[in-house]
Amino acid sequence: MSALTSLPEWTKLSEIAASVKNAHMRDWFADDPSRADKMQLEACGLFLDYSKNRVNDDALNALFDLARACKLETLRDAMFSGEQINSTEGRAVLHTALRNFSDREVVVDGKDVMPEVRATLEKIEAFTASVHRGEHTGYTGKPVKDIVAIGIGGSFLGPKIMTEALKPHTVDSVKVHFVANVDGCHIHDVLSRVDFEETLVVMSSKSFSTQETLQNTLTAKEWFLKSGGTQQDIAKHFVAVSSNVKAATEFGIAEENIFPMWDWVGGRYSLWSAIGLPISLALGFENFKGLLEGAFEMDTHFTQAPLEENMPVLLALLGIWYRNFFDAQSHVLLPYYHYLRGLPAYVQQLDMESNGKEVTQDGEQVDYPTGPIIWGSEGTNGQHSFHQLIHQGSGVIPADFMLPLNVPNQDDTHHAMLASNCFGQTQALMQGKSFEACYADLEDKGLDDDERRRLAAHKTMPGNKPSNTFLFDSLTPKTLGALVAMYEHKVFVQGVIWNLNSFDQWGVELGKVLGNQVLAGIQGEAEKENFDASTQQLIARFRAANAPK
Ligand SMILES: O=P(O)(O)OC[C@H]1O[C@H](O)[C@H](O)[C@@H](O)[C@@H]1O
């Protein structure tokens, strides 16, 4: 047995789970009229109703005991203080320093990193202003109208999804186009729609070695040169964000056009760094700063609120409850707000790349399930497709519903309908519909009793399906920053409980290496014996199809 499953707190949770499995939330609500009032939290502009969860006081208390037994508070403080908690890469984990608006020093290798962080923010602010005011022009003197932001993974999802979520705050003077995939359709499609004299390319790559991003940037550079720009003009049209300044300058980016980041910022935690430059360009620096401020507020809540009133901690523990004691395989995110539709994809990388691990910090195989599958999309669309599986599928799929109470420029009927569907779904999932009620509905339908029972069985909804509901006044940059930081800390807490290193990604790294090796095979620069038989024949087919005619 692992250290985790040997804990008395774990055993106790197993026992409580066994007893709770026989209880229905419907009955808990009926028995305790104050349940909804008791099971809610407010922090950083977010209201959370967690009463529709399959937990009672015993379960919650035991979950908080587990967190304490796993030394959550000590490890949390170790992260914030810059200890090298990313033990496989020997790195500190300090995305929180990027939004540290306090006077607190953050020391890495004996040096306070805060002056560099502030200087980079100033550089982002000044650059954003010069682009928006038309002072940073292209080489022919025309102001920048289009920004092509190239990056992938954490160097793409955060900037794209935050920009999309805050669409009502978009500035008029520039339009930002994001390109991630190496599939040439995308970059060619974007480049065909912009004028090279009025375009700025922002290339974002922490490592400056990601194949997709390098290739897309090369293609953009070729397009620029072919369109009429010269090598000297590149400085006016290409900037980069990277921790690898050497590689960026070798690539041809002028040193003054490189926005730094640091190895203590993980890719999937990097939107708060200069990787967020496209957000600032799309929305204005004040709105980018608002995101950081919201995240800082959540950091303060996470570090200071008692565990029982701590939103990320509570969410993490509920996740542990379902994943480890109810065999939940996945967790669904359901933003009821069109502009927030990208959030599930954002949290998908954050969570699955962080906790998609099967080995503990000590290199031991786990004997318990770890990170769940994260998925979801905007409501109400999912109600007409995949919600079926959440309502009547054979497993438990905990859901996070989220809804802004106010939305810009929308008529009240649409918004009321959106809200009613959101709340209605949480209610249906919790209550379900009993066999008896379905059977009664089928009276007077002219059915014999067997048929009535058969149909009633299909229509029965077990209910007892857990959900959290988040409400916020409106989706401001600050609220969004807090929401995203909340999920970051939730993932951190789960990593602590599961004793994982949530900050490396060796599986993804292997994919990068093999992708480059296969490319060499496709380009005839690697022996076929380097590949397994299946891959050899796939390469051969591709080469045959692309051979010169
Ligand atoms: O920013 P880059 O170095 O180009 O990396 C881009 C992405 O590469 C990998 O896929 C990592 O797993 C991601 O976390 C990272 O964000």
Secondary structure elements and their pairing?
Blueprint: H1 8-20, H2 25-31, H3 35-38, E1 40-43, E2 46-49, H4 57-69, H5 72-80, E3 107-108, E4 111-112, H6 114-132, E5 146-150, H7 157-165, E6 175-179, H8 184-191, E7 199-204, H9 211-227, H10 234-237, E8 238-242, H11 245-251, E9 258-260, H12 277-283, H13 285-304, H14 311-325, E10 330-335, H15 343-355, E11 373-376, H16 387-392, E12 399-404, H17 412-431, H18 435-441, H19 449-459, E13 467-472, H20 477-498, H21 506-522, H22 533-545
The structure holds 6-O-phosphono-alpha-D-glucopyranose.
The end-to-end span amounts to 61 Å
- Which CATH first-tier class of the largest domain would you pick? Alpha Beta
Helix vs. strand class: alpha/beta
CATH architecture of the largest domain: 3-Layer(aba) Sandwich
Please describe the biggest sheet, giving its number of strands, its sense, and whether it closes into a barrel: 6 strands, mixed
Query: Gyration radius, to the nearest Å?
Result: 26 Å
Strand content: 5-15%
Shape: globular
Mean pLDDT across the residues is: 97
Strand order across the largest sheet: 1-2-13-12-10-11
- How many distinct domains? 3
Number of strands: 13
Instruction: From the 3D structure, determine the CATH topology of the largest domain.
Output: Rossmann fold
Counting DSSP H or I runs of 4 or more residues, the number of helices is 22
Helix share bin: 40-55%
Classified in CATH, the superfamily of the largest domain is: Glucose-6-phosphate isomerase like protein, domain 1
Ligand roster = 6-O-phosphono-alpha-D-glucopyranose
User: Stretches where pLDDT falls below 50 for ≥5 residues?
Assistant: none
EC number: 5.3.1.9
Pathway: Carbohydrate biosynthesis; gluconeogenesis; Carbohydrate degradation; glycolysis; D-glyceraldehyde 3-phosphate and glycerone phosphate from D-glucose: step 2/4
GO molecular function, one term: monosaccharide binding
InterPro entries: G6P_Isomerase, G6P_Isomerase_C, Phosphoglucose_isomerase_CS, SIS_dom_sf, SIS_PGI_1, SIS_PGI_2
